[in-house]
Protein: Prephenate/arogenate dehydrogenase domain-containing protein
Amino acid sequence: MSSFPSSSSPRTLKIGIIGFGPFAQFLAKTIIKQGHTIRATSRSDHSELSVQLGISFFRNMDAFLESDNDVILLSTSILSLSEVVKSMPFNRLKGQTLFADVLSVKEYPREVLLQTVPQDCDVLCTHPMFGPESGKEGWKDLTFVYDRVRISNEAICRSFLQIFQTEGCKMLEISCEEHDKLAAQSQFLTHTIGWMLSEMEIGPTSIDTKGFQKLVQVKQSTTKDSFDLFCGLFIHNRFARQEVQNLELALEKVKQKLKERMNEDQDRSVSNQ
Structure:
């Protein structure tokens, strides 16, 4: 881990966003306020919203890449990333470009980008550890994780990172591998519990404890996200499979302890008769 280096003169960037869903729209609103220019493209047509935000929206990937972006920010789903990146006509790029992603897994996009984007392009893997709900009052003290995978243009990379530093984010530089280890133990495990509670169809009751209310909140917050996101967290984070095994093992241990205690109680009852 290392602290984020300070810089007194960040430059205004031209940022192209691929995948203009709710999370990208959430990021774009703050990025625009800082004076950066945004262009966007997406499978869905967000032309009307883009006009409202002051963003140029492209339905054609060739034209999007030709629009001369300093940074191309990938905000696709985890499951569609490889297909999207491999279908890009990189020959349309105007020059050296920084490719950055904001996916919830990190080793996977790192490998996809290193194998696919031109060698003269930079690669920065990031994960804002917040979203439209947790970041609706601002990004101050919210964690922004990043790994400078392949950086030659320091000015562009620094200026992009300073978007988040300027908003007061806690800047945390760690490797993609370390991120995925930690995320499997936290984000993936939380989503797993949430989807399990959803399968159990739990909901508020008239006698809820505070603890149960928190469980309901976990279910509600995780299932607001798509099941595809959850699948992506499992399929493309190699550490997630171990966490599933750990969860299964923990449940079996708890069940065994309950059975042992129940048998002990039954034996005491018999001996006292």
Summary: The two ends are 63 Å apart (CA to CA). The chain has two domains: 14-174, 179-271.
